[in-house]
Amino acid sequence: MSAIKGVLTAMVTPFTESGTVDETAALRLAVHLLEHGSHGLVISGSTGEAPTLTDEEALVLLSAIRKEVGEDTLLICGTGTNYTQHSIELTKGAADAGADAALIVTPYYNKPNPAGIKAHFEAIAAAVPEMPIIAYNIPSRVVVNVPPELLAELAEIDNVVAVKQANNDELQPVEGMDLLAGNDDVFLRTLELGGAGGILVASHLVGPQMREIWDAAQAGDLDRAREIDASLRTLYAAMGVTTNPIPVKAALAMTGLIPTDAMRLPLVPADAEQRTTVRAALESVGLAPVKP
Q: What residues contact 212, with CB distance under 8 A and at least 6 apart?
């Protein structure tokens, strides 16, 4: 297994127009991402529309991608749900299907208190002790925030090894945990703080540039890293013009990297105004859309 660091792309799940998982397109995209800057991939995360994937779909896709990219590529699978036992079963399934690590989001909707959050992670970690776990803090989606002091408690669990921090206001190192950027716009700031990398969205489109940010930061050339980061800010913003992954799917379809930007309800494809924003952002980084 590769180390959990660098440019880790939270891969979209391509669907056909009829709504089935497009495995052929997914395999093609996975290879493209790894050839264009990504150190590893996250399958079935927020960007992969995990809430609308069945467990079987997620695990079949993970297994197919593992077979396609080989044993040495870092593959992380989103296995967190709002039911601890379900999360345990899905994490075990992901381990069997070839995942190197599990991304576990804070339970959503239930709104657990800090004791419940800690117990949730402890139970999953104890059930799958060989699986490295990345805690995923994204209060904008799950309502509950995991503050730094609670993250420090989670870090004491043996196989909770990192946090994907998607709360920009609390981006800071956590003792005993690797720090991963959860948003594109703080990827460089995470590296400046000594973080391990980021689980990213814009790397679908500008993977080589984001890899160069990583490489420059590792070499101590922060001026170069900041220069590249500044050039990507318009694209970062466009990826948030509406709910992720609507914009990135639109961009991938426009550039021909996936056949269609089909979504599963309740998400819908980008509207005309949103597509205009995405198209302008692509052009700002030198990507000419090949489709409307």
A: 37, 224, 225, 228
